Amino acid sequence: MTRGRLGRWSVALASSLALATLAACSSSGGGSHSGSPSAGGGSATGSAASAGSGTKIVAVGAENEYADVISQIGGKYVATTAIMSDPNTDPHTFEASAGVSKAVQAASLVVQNGVGYDDFMDKIEKASPNSARKVINVQQLRGLPDSTPNPHLWYDPKTMPAVAAELVKDLSAIQPAHAAYFQAQETTFLAALKPWTTALATFTKEHPNVPVATTEPVADYMLQAAGTDNKTPWSLQAAIMNGTDPSPQDVATQSGLFKNKQVKVFLYNQQVTDDITAKFLKEAHAAGIPVVGVYETMPTDGYTYQSWMLAELDALKKAVVSGTSTEKL
């Protein structure tokens, strides 16, 4: 998903903002919301005004990977909704609905990516202001500028530990009586994250500078942490990410990587495919180069954030070691 493609605002969003404003005026935050505004999300119950020690904190993650971390840290004291959670659809065409606005309006805590990836969250939050609502903008949390070229921050091993720490802080502020519980949940979360970070270090040591090709920079932060050498021109990655046509020169360079077998793995965003992606997939297959599909939103069939990241890295390792393709997890 990208800043360029996220500029597509629809009538559905305008309607949802209006509905959220009406809901805020008519209910004063005391209503109850159940279910999820997006397939695969968690449930939200209660309201922003009812986050006492005996009530679950209502939280929203703009992307389901962030919602999963909220759930892991909040545990039994938090009810979480994921806004974007379907790995089988193109997240670039996401349209916020009235249900999304209601979920955000009810939330005491929100986590969003930033870097232009989910600007719709800012618009919804402004349409239903709540001075008590805590908002974690991951871009700001990481101290990253608006010009950060790659918005897929959750693939960076530094991101979720920082998010987890901030969640402990904010959840403890909302429900101080459960602060020790949230801290213990964070310890468990970090322990479950360690196999991925350890595997990244091992991969870097055992397979230094493995040449790879990509379509867009969805998993680039992980590839960098794994010590790979991404041969695809950044200008081509940025063009595909932003929904524009890459230059003929970049396309020729990418095709040459496959034809001349200059890369050992081809990674592509399996949620967003088009003619240029299909062309590169065909060329990689023809050259016998293993293909790995990466995801922008977390697969919903039993994965946690940690197991998802480890599965992506395992797919990369299988491609390098045995030439095995994993186009879908």
Automatic annotation (TrEMBL):
Pfam families: ZnuA. SUPFAM superfamilies: Helical backbone' metal receptor (SSF53807). GO terms for molecular function: metal ion binding. The keyword Membrane does not apply. Transmembrane segments: none annotated. GO terms for cellular component: cell envelope. Keywords: Metal-binding, Signal, Transport. It is found in: Cell envelope. Its main location: other. GO terms for biological process: metal ion transport. The keyword Ribonucleoprotein does not apply. Residues 1-23 form the signal peptide. Gene3D superfamilies: Nitrogenase molybdenum iron protein domain. This is Cation ABC transporter substrate-binding protein. It comes from Flexivirga caeni.
